[in-house]
Input
Amino acid sequence: MLDEDEETDGTEPTGDSKRMEPAAAVCEAETSGGGIKAALPAPFDYSGLDVQTVEVLHLAEREIRKARQVYICRVSAAVAAAHEAVVANCDDSKHGNRGEHAFINWCASVGLKKDAAYRLLQVNALLTGATPEEQATLEAASPSLLYAAARPSAPAELVQGVKAGDITTHKQYQELLAEIRNRDAKISELIEAGEASGRRAEAAEKRAREAEAQCAAMLDKQDEHIAHIHDLESRPVEVAVQEPDPAEVERMAEEKARAMTAELRGQLKTAEGNIQRMKSIRDSLQSQLENRRQAAFRQAAVLTAENVLPMAQDLAGNIKALYNTFLLAAHGLHGEDYRRCAAPLAQALEEALGGLRANTAQYTATRYEEDEDFE
Output
């Protein structure tokens, strides 16, 4: 199908061309009342015609294109004027002539469908909101490009590109729109991954704080154990045994206390190390997420392999660090306890691997789909 992108191609096929579409193929057919249809006519077969006839037909096509560009701008201005007048002045509710309802009825009376009328209003808003230089550029654009740029959902950067003349064809607009959508999807994935990592890091930090509190509680109980030993020493012996040497009892008590203290301090040190590692991983992930978010929003084009590869390598390193942290935390678990604790990590890794494989298969078959401009 001939796209309006070919309007500025500057080349003309000869009489030997097999299939070409007329100018009407780049715009919707107009009804006798001024309405716009989405259906396109069948392409015209130029085969068998002499060169002079083909040139005459192409000249007619160019004139039709120019006429339709003027038509879109003039009709959009007329529809906007009618909309402003009807909505502002019609308030007779008895006859159903209130505001937008009256405007829709008027459009139907002149053969304009509701959707087509509001699209023309969008085109007029685009034109009236532009500078004189931008208006001249927009008036020279193809109808399909005008309708696309006038949509409320059109990205601001693409609208500005059309106004500035950097985007001149509907095909170019659609390609850039696909790139922006792909970029935004990747940014959303990065944000979600970063938020999930942050939640996991916070949960790990909470568990580390709980372990630290348990260690502190065990250290507090140390004094109770020592007091209990002294209490046992002070009790009278009820059986006929040789009373131990008080110095030996004191030495054993101090030895036991030192051993317990060393053990508890070792556990506390390990917990503190885990806390620091979790904080470091969390801070690193948050910093990387912020840097990548800012970098992604600064670039208008889709992320390239050169951009994504270092990011993927960093994420792989973070995943390995989290995995090593889990191994350190779960080194004392066995059997069902270990399987139960490892299950969430294994599930997350399997889901990520499955997603990567699916995306790899999908991206090998990527294609562009043209949006319908008119109904």
Observations:
- DSSP finds ten helices and two strands in the chain.
